[in-house]
Amino acid sequence: MRLKTYIVNTMAEALPMIKKDLGEDALILNTKKIKTGGFLGFFKKEKLEITAGVDPIPPKKGLPTEAKSPSKWSDPKDSSAELIHELKNMKQFMMKQMKEEDLPESLRLLKKQLIAQEIAPDILTDLLAKLIARDEFNTDQTLERVQRFAREELVAMMDSHQCDEITQQPEIICFIGPTGVGKTTTIAKIAAGYLLAKDKKVGLITADTYRIAAVEQLKTYGSILNIPVKVVESSADLTKAIEDFHDCDIILMDTAGRNYQQTQYIEDLKQLLPTDSKVQIHLVLSLTAKYEDMKKIINNFRSISMDELLLTKKDETSSSGAIVNLICHYDIPIRYIANGQNVPDDIMACTPELVADFILGEKTNA
Asked: What angle do CA 1, 132, 35 make, to 5 degrees?
């Protein structure tokens, strides 16, 4: 491994030097504060000693089997290099070492903005590291220019985590989720979309007999849209309702919103939901919830195979970081974001560009 030590005032000062000397694959191996200069032991200045290193011959993907044999890769000298290559890349590691005061002012302001949006710490670190690693980046750039770079990196990050779209069109979509997330209103919006924009024949089913108001609400939407609605209380009722809707192109099913921490509720839901391959399960979450609560909800519903997430109540929160967190942390597609009570208007297709607008404001030419 090739090593080099730098004596600098701040980490930010060292970054371009390390990048120039050791390249993109270098890693920060050690940092410590030292005293330098002075006269007769007095007036010494505090500096930062940074040791960075790079493996001159990093392991390559797709090597032939013989190249990976113990005779060529078991040398103890390579053990430290292999361990280092398991760490995150150089820029992420640097960011973890940097203190707030080491960041350029534009990055400090951007970081504050992203924290206010509740971007998860690991995603925030990764994003800032990618910004520092950009060839165009320098420490005296304006906040507006850094925000433009951040937008590009944020979109790219979300693009890289997007799941492949499900090609098989479902015949039944079941909407599940905790109480109060707006499932019924959202189902009405999606039903209107199928009916008006796609010219599909739609059937509505509700199993939310736990709340009488929910049944009446869906029936009201069904009456307005001229869509038939059936109420079911058991799996037998559901089978019959699906048979009655045999001429529909798509069936949308509402379920009772209950306490997601009650495992019995989830077990009861599993017994009710159809298991046919042409059935999709969509978990509905409210953006007004804390991200930690969203994670618990997803984990508690993991025993039910979820095909998509659907996010609601965007209009009731100024924080959108949870959308980025969900895209980057989970392998479940997000197709729609609902942003109000108006049917059928207040629903949007979820795209990386739209989410970046939520986080950083509308795109500018800065």
From this structure: 65
